[in-house]
Amino acid sequence: MTTTQEHDAKIAKLVFASVYPHYLKKIETKGRTVTELHQVIEWLTGFDENSLQQLIDEKVNFQIFFERANLNTNAHLIKGIICGYRIEDIETPLTKQARYLDKLIDELAKGKSMDKIFRK
Fold first, then answer.
1. Which of 1, 4, 44, 77 would be a feasible disulfide site paired with 89, CB 3.0-4.6 Å?
2. How far apart are CA 31 and CA 97, in angstroms?
3. Among candidate residues 21, 98, 22, 100, the one with its CA nearest the CA of residue 64
4. Which pLDDT does position 1 carry in this prediction?
């Protein structure tokens, strides 16, 4: 699936710190914890809690966030539809990575077990 240049640029410019509270609210309203959220983010990106806080404090955008990430080797196993896009068909790497994160957080909020989220 080809996304538009405008769509991809919009994702690249999004500041992670501005989206993080929405992730947190989404999972907490469904009974999940901030610890679980951090585990999911760390699984995908390699960022531990301290690294994540530093990125939030720096107010990095998604482009920098994913440039600094060490994407999990099993990230390609994340499939499905999120935000109207089929993840496995997205051609732009940054947009795909952002949708990976969205999908994992969505699965967490929907009550999936951590083993399933981590593609074990």
1. 1
2. 25
3. 98
4. 58
CATH number of the domain that 32 lies in? 1.10.8.290
pLDDT digit string, tens, across residues 46-87: 999 999 999 999 999 999 999 999 999 999 999 999 988 899
With both helix axes pointing from N to C terminus, report the angle between 93-109 and 5-13 in degrees, rounded to the nearest 10: 60
SS3 content of the chain, % helix, strand, coil (to 5): 65, 5, 30
- Give the number of C-alpha atoms closer than 13 A to the C-alpha of residue 37, restricted to the C-beta side: 21
Q: Which amino acid does the sequence have at 97?
A: Q
User: pLDDT tens-digit profile of 2-47?
Assistant: 678 898 899 999 999 999 999 999 999 999 999 999 999 999 999 9
Cα 9 from Cα 63, distance rounded (Å): 9
Give the 3-state secondary structure of residue 1. Answer: coil
